[in-house]
User: Fold this.
Amino acid sequence: MDEDFECAGCILGLKNAISFGSVFMHGLARLLAITVLSCLVLSCTSVLAADRRTTLAVEAPQDLPLNTEPTSPLWSEATPVQMEKNGYGKVVPGFRTVVRVRWTKDNLYFLFICPYDELNLKPAPFTTDQETNQLWNWDVAEVFLGSDFRDIKRYREFEISPRGEWIDLDIDLHKPHHEEGWTWNSGFEVSARIDAAAHTWYGAMRIPYASVDSRPAAAGNKLRMNLFRSQGPPSNQHEITWQPPMTATFHTPERFGILKLVKRAGGTQR
Assistant:
């Protein structure tokens, strides 16, 4: 009887051990699965966040006349970029702006499609023959571009108004008055039109690539970039951004995104 009892005790102990081991292994497997899933979620989140900070400029087959028609050959193959947040990351209803970007060996092209409710235009006199200093005090669309990834406080700024007024600046944030860079001249060109019936204005830029990068333009090149709009009179002004600076100034290069040059569909490098 004692031997049978001991054997029964051993068997029961073994069963309990196996049962405990199964529970333990099940728990371990579950913990491992949760850990792996968490890592995947974090990885996907990082990739999505990185993707939101990168946009593509698709190569154009050749330089084309600058125009403001989104369906034209110049813009139809471009990857749309959307701007709809203010400087602190909050969505601004009604002002979602679409930007299209192309490149050739000589130029970068930008088209802004800007919905509006009320325009804030510079009072007369105004001119499109020469640049307008302090154009940023009225409605504008802006491109900030930099190729220096070490000294991020150096970059170039390009602005266009709904009427085609323009200004370009060589920005050096090491200086106390970086706006003095407006005397620099990139040689960029602009075109603009206002569709009053649709409450939308269009602004196009052709920027010489050599004015923003010392390298030849090529697929794979990356530039630091941000996109902005100022919209409406002071009493009802809105700021619309691509990468929100999360500060009171657009000039926050730490928050810039990335513009990557890629070939057209069917090219060898993207």
Summary: Helices lie at 2-52, 73-76.
